[in-house]
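Exercise 7.
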Amino acid sequence: MKYLFLMACLFSVVAVFSQPSQKEIKKFKISEVREEEIYIEDSIVNVTETWYDNQGYDTAWVYGRSKYRASYQFDKMNRVEKKTVYDALGFESSNRRYAYYPNGSYRIDFWYVLGYDAEYEVYDSLNRLEKKQLKEGYKLFYDYDNKNRLISVMSMRRPSVKAKLIHLLYTYNGKGNLEKEISKGDEKWERYYTHNAKGQIIKIVRSGEIRSVCEYVYDNKGLISKITEFQTGNSGKKTTITTSYNYVFRK
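Solution. The predicted structure, written as tokens, is:
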């Protein structure tokens, strides 16, 4: 499970704690993941299918009627040098370029055909995300403790940039499991995490403007098989979202 390296989606619990990591994909020889998301009250169903190669890289995916495939270029040390994404017609829709430095750190630059602002990520030699630019003049900075655990995320922006300020703090229990996440930026909320004996997240409770409870179920391999999220908005509207995961394994 991808654990607390917050990328594009800082506020979506399901997005952060759901998809299997590249390490898990290789370990269990996963070739395909089918994700079915159902909004119970609105009878909306979203299905995403993703295919992986034997190194754990995603090579194709389908979301609704949108289809994409990806190709990779590697350097002499077998590190990803470029990932290119193509749409159903074969046109390039985005790419990411990797630059590696002698001290072990590296940078990823993102390009989108729709012309989003210059986006990039910087990782240190321990593969920890240190800095992310979401748009020109708006950056996120990540800080870790001496046990390599994420303890804060803070944003910086130019006065001319219209974007919400982000200030997230993380605390852990005696077993090293994430226990609490607090947002002290423009949006105020808290999340509380409960784990089972294996250290897997089984429940996340969020307070704030949008209140929610997420419950996790795992299969016998330890992969997430289902997430149920109960949301309550300021208006009192209740939303129930179930997300099921089905895996195909290589023989």
